[in-house]
Amino acid sequence: MGKADRKRWDGNVKSMAIVAKPREDITEDDVAFLRDNYTSTGGLLPNAYAGGAFYTPTHVARFIIEALRGLSGGSFPQGSRFLEPSAGSGVFIEHLPKDAEVTALELDEISAKVTSLLYPHANVINDDAFRHALRDYYDYVIGNPPYGVTIDIAADDLPDNYETLKVTKGRAKGKSESAFIELAIKSAKPGGYIAFVLPMGINYANYAEKVRQLLYTTCWHVATVMLPGETFALTGTTIPTQILIVRKAPPVTPLIPSATTKWSSNFKRGGHEDITDFDAKFLVGQPPAYFAQITDIGYDKDGKSTDKWGDGRTQLDELLNDFTDDNLTRENLYPHIPSWHSVKDVSAFMFSHGNGSCDGYRDASYTYTGGPYRWNELTLGAGEEIEWRGEFVSTFDFTWQDQIVAEYYEGLAESLPAAA
User: Of 64, 257, 326, 415, whose Cβ has the fewest other Cβ atoms within 10 Å?
Assistant: First the structure.
């Protein structure tokens, strides 16, 4: 165990001693210590003992919350409902508005108590997240769910059926990352956002096929931001990860064919690729798929700062502008031929494929030397208009989703009985 790991270990041991005290004996200094030192045991113990939990770096959590704020018009509506289904020590809650309705689910008793001490305004529930029964309720579902852990829960404890969990002999079992995504989709309301840190394996692994299909048929893709292996180096792992941001579409939102049927690679010979050969359909309202690659997270694998200018900013801070500029950047990125089209089916379009050799990645690496790289991939069209409910809408219109969501809720309101 190195010096950094020893420091984390000692900090967690002292934190556990604080948490063991009666609540009335925990001082403000104790709470301050917890805030600065408790990280759980991810990376300090084998994964099976740590529950697949890895402390999310603060600047990663902050980026996710600020990106969602930008996507929401620059501020969160008062009383917005947030769910963090695997809260750990609540690093995401740190960046939420104090007037929000925050629900934090955490299976580990110590982590749940730490979160309740740090964020007394949050509703912290020490229980299995898959017993949580609120559906179509939350404006935002956020977090960094455990990876590579088998969910194992009594089937009778589930409030409804899960496509990502297989029931055998009364037990529902499945991969944690897939099941948490399904929980998020169930919990978010139509028009609500989901933002998770996820492993790269979900892009292509057979075990994730069901959840990729579920995302494809129920959610609009907003962004995929790939993070380098150094991101979680301070907690003992160098596995590359990614931030996936999606928006839940209203029920029965249809899948429609792409208006652009042929598109060329900028690097490969052979003319136009006919993407309709791959049954390229997308939810009505889907803009071009936005991807980004962070090449420097702010420190190296040993935790040494890579801040060249001494201003404390990282590539995530730079990338944030793409979510706060009223869609200006994302609307103007070239829509490259999709990386999924020759390796996976269209349900995998929310994830990048090709190991850095796809058109978008290669072009972005030349355009944004040093990073962060960012590019779009083709979905419904390269600017063509699609007729929708008597009007023509541009396939580059990033506000189309807002119109669809507004119409959905207007329809709900009209279907309610008039007040007496």
Answer: 415
What values do phi and psi take at 101, rounded to 5?
A: -90, 110
Contact between residue 190 and residue 248 where contact means Cβ atoms under 8 Å apart = yes
Measure Cα distances from 150 to 70, 146, 207 in Å: 35, 10, 12
How many whole angstroms separate alpha carbon 214 and alpha carbon 216? 5
Are 363 and 355 in contact by the 8 Å Cβ rule? The answer is no
Side chain identity at 92, as an amino acid letter? F
- pTM for this prediction: 0.92
Could you give the CA distance from residue 192 to residue 200 in angstroms, rounded to a whole number?
A: 24
Pairing of strands 272-274, 219-227: unpaired
The residue type of 367 is T
Taking the C-alpha atoms of residue 362 and residue 375, their distance in angstroms, rounded to an integer, is: 10
pLDDT at residue 251, as a whole number: 96
Burial track 77-90 (b if 16+ CB lie within 10 A, e otherwise):
eeebbbbbbbbbbb
How many Å apart are CA 309 and CA 315, to the nearest integer?
12
> C-alpha 379: how far from its chain's center?
20
Quote the tokens at residue 399: 């506000």
**53-415 maps to which CATH number?**
3.40.50.150
Q: What is the block-wise mean pLDDT of the chain (420 residues), using blocks of 10 residues? A: 62 84 85 81 41 73 97 96 94 94 95 92 96 98 93 97 97 97 98 97 93 97 96 80 98 94 74 71 96 94 84 93 92 90 84 86 93 95 92 94 96 77
Beta bridge partners of 221: 246
CA distance 365 to 344: 23
Q: Do 65 and 73 contact (CB within 8 A), yes or no?
A: no
pLDDT at 4: 54
Q: What's residue 53's pLDDT?
A: 52
Helix (H) or strand (E) holding 175: strand 171-175
User: Structural domain boundaries of the chain?
Assistant: 1-38, 53-415
The answer to whether residues 122 and 116 touch, using CB atoms and an 8 Å cutoff, is yes
* Cβ density class 370-393: b for 16+ within 10 Å, e for less: ebbbbbbbbbbbbeeebebeeeeb
Sheet holding 138-143, edge to edge: 123-125, 101-105, 81-84, 138-143, 188-199, 241-248, 219-227, 289-293, 373-377, 335-336
